[in-house]
UniProtKB/TrEMBL annotation:
GO MF: ATP binding; ATP hydrolysis activity; DNA binding
InterPro entries: AAA+_ATPase, ABC_transporter-like_ATP-bd, ABC_transporter-like_CS, ABC_transporter_ATP-binding, Cro/C1-type_HTH, Lambda_DNA-bd_dom_sf, P-loop_NTPase
Organism, as annotated: Leuconostoc fallax
Domain ABC transporter: 68-290
One Pfam family from the record: ABC_tran
SUPFAM superfamilies assigned: lambda repressor-like DNA-binding domains (SSF47413), P-loop containing nucleoside triphosphate hydrolases (SSF52540)
Annotated protein name in UniProt: HTH cro/C1-type domain-containing protein
Record Gene3D superfamilies: lambda repressor-like DNA-binding domains (1.10.260.40), P-loop containing nucleotide triphosphate hydrolases (3.40.50.300)
Length: 302
């Protein structure tokens, strides 16, 4: 096992931009242990192998024998670039797996919405490749940052229309959705007359009404009152499949997500497991502030 494993470990560690020291810290071993594994002088125990696979975000086969199982891979983004008047994305690489619950974080203007729009194909990248292993029509649900609603329909009509398109139409189900998202009182209000928060809740209902293998939400809770935000996160606990959410709701990131990604200067600068961050006694907000600051300081230096 040593040769392939050692090579894989070096490659995957470097891809994650982790030093031997940083990797060692994450799995609670000495830097010398990592060095020995990479030189083929020693092998990690099985529990350390499992931790390594988690941190490097690969399955064990990939780590041990260099073969990646694509069974669980639902999207693979490679060397993606996109410029408008200025470069926005510059060599973005990301794999999304079937059970990921990813929070995509970054400052305003970092390119988060641009990245997800490229993922669900409403804008084209300038270069790079996206491999999609799901059916984009049947297996993907999205909620965009701007509500895309038909303003001269009544709320109930929009829900019924989407339910029919998504083949989940049933009267009792629609009633249930109205109650669950506290929309019954405005069911017969024209969409053009809804408040911002009500429109947001309606957009959510539309994106959550059918099951999906990948759910992408772009700032779902913005403009919602506290009660609606609580309802939303409660609902999310029951959502299956992979979830990628752009959010600044740091109160919830610690509780709900398994993986956090930091987009900055056009690249994914961090891609960490929430459990690792917690194991280092950090909250996600502390982690975010630390790396945003570190990266900003580096930007000033260079
Ligand atoms: N269609 C467009 N034409 C020109 N510039 C654009 C377009 N869409 C986005 N941009 C620019 O690209 C950059 C990234 O925008 P994007 O909306 O992806 O950021 P974001 O990370 O989602 O920010 P926010 O947190 O404010 O939603 C911004 O500088 C924005 O002005
Ligand atoms: Mg955005």
């Amino acid at each position: 096992m040593e040769n392939v494993f050692s090579e894989q470990l070096i490659t995957l560690r470097q891809k994650k931009k982790l030093s031997q020291h940083a990797l060692a810290q994450k799995i609670f071993v000495t830097r010398q242990s990592v060095s020995k594994w990479e030189n083929g002088d020693a092998e990690p125990s099985i529990d350390k192998l499992i931790s390594l696979a988690e941190i490097l975000n690969v399955d064990l086969n990939h780590l041990l024998i260099g073969q990646q199982s694509t069974a669980d891979l639902i999207m693979s983004i490679n060397h993606l670039t996109k410029s408008f008047t200025q470069p926005v994305l510059n060599d973005v690489n990301l794999n999304i797996y079937g059970r990921d619950r990813i929070a995509l974080l970054g400052s305003n203007g970092a390119g988060k919405s641009t990245l997800v729009k490229i993922m669900y194909n409403t804008i084209k990248a300038d270069s790079g490749e996206i491999k999609r292993y799901i059916n984009m029509r049947d297996d993907l649900n999205i909620m965009t940052q701007d509500d895309i609603l038909i303003s001269d329909l009544k709320l109930i009509e929009q829900i019924e229309l989407s339910a029919r398109i998504n083949q989940v139409y049933a009267k009792t189900y629609i009633e249930q959705l109205l109650d669950q998202f506290r929309l019954r009182q405005v069911a017969h209000t024209y969409i053009s007359k809804l408040s911002g928060g009500e429109k947001r809740r309606l957009s959510l209902v539309l994106s959550l009404m059918r099951p999906s293998k990948l759910l992408i939400l772009d700032e779902p809770t913005v403009g919602m009152d506290l009660e609606s935000i609580d309802l939303f996160w409660k609902h999310m606990d029951h959502v299956g499949g992979a979830v990628l959410t752009i959010t600044h709701d740091f109160n919830q990131i610690d509780k709900y997500f398994s993986r956090v990604i930091l987009l900055k200067d056009g690249q994914i600068k961090r891609d960490d497991r929430v459990s690792d961050i917690h194991a280092h006694n950090q909250t996600i907000e502390q982690w975010y502030r630390q790396f945003n600051r570190v990266l900003e300081a580096k930007g000033v230096e260079s």
